[in-house]
């Protein structure tokens, strides 16, 4: 009946260390918990006496038509939770009309994911070997991906204490299908997560604006920076020709104590002022959450963990049902808020718990009574 049901169902079938790997955050998980709490502090000011006989969730994301203002977020190693892995979740996204973001660390090769059809974006981690990084971009282009999503908040993996305590390793049947990982991700360490060891050896901590410029020059695909929280960084991204930024704290898995993504969203939206798209990631768990993001200036959202809970619980059908629920809940929320579509949601105003009514990022002013 709701996305939380899938998390409970997944918990009943997943090994505890895999469940912790997906659910956990970094450090004391302050930011992980704050993402959800911050969304729950945002209240919507619905409008009345609007004709909502027909409510559409259709929109455009990165210039491409989408049935929902929702994309599947990049998550590594879907085969951890189901043998079909990314093939199943990509099929669910295609059926829902939502873009699917394939991770550099996907457990299925990018070519097999794009063969499913639908809109596929490729999430890029900047590797220590720049030539290999650029080869991944060309490979994604050749496979038919329609955007490159560069993750910019992982110079190394955050200290995820659940994984450290579990001495987490990848099982033998799961590997990063797009990059050579060696044995590091499969070797148990006494006081570390094997995945943290692997990423520290594989990812570059020297990713800079020069790297963004080089990537912008290399590819003609829409370029997205994921992991932006400061409005100054968002503005600079737009100046570098980036097509979109994803306001994200990596689901609370990187800097513990980072601002909740939804709290950073309005300032980022104001800073770029329409010069690039703004998407929200981290903590989205319902249709009303999507509506909150739209009202605060996002053109869409990315949803991650719930897709894996659905995949774990019931394979492709479970992942598909997660997206169906989000679509049903979003249409319901739009209509009850007096919105006949996604564009109208941008004109809603919001109230923060304990605060007065806020203006939406889209300019608003009282209009003549006949127009209201």
UniProtKB/TrEMBL annotation:
- GO function terms (MF aspect): FMN binding; oxidoreductase activity, acting on CH-OH group of donors
Q: Which residues bind glyoxylate?
A: 125, 160, 250, 253
Q: Which UniProt keywords apply?
A: Flavoprotein, FMN, Oxidoreductase
Needed cofactors = FMN
CDD domains reported in the protein's UniProt record = alpha_hydroxyacid_oxid_FMN
Domain FMN hydroxy acid dehydrogenase, chain residue ranges per copy: 1-355
**Residues holding FMN:** 74-76, 103, 123, 151, 226, 248, 281-285, 304-305
- Check the record and name the SUPFAM superfamilies matching this protein: FMN-linked oxidoreductases (SSF51395)
Instruction: Output the InterPro entries linked to this UniProt entry.
Output: Aldolase_TIM, Alpha-hydoxy_acid_DH_FMN, FMN-dep_DH, FMN_HAD, FMN_hydac_DH_AS
Catalytic residues, chain numbering: 250
Family to which this protein belongs: Belongs to the FMN-dependent alpha-hydroxy acid dehydrogenase family.
User: What name goes with this protein?
Assistant: Alpha-hydroxy-acid oxidizing protein
Annotated source species: Streptomyces jumonjinensis
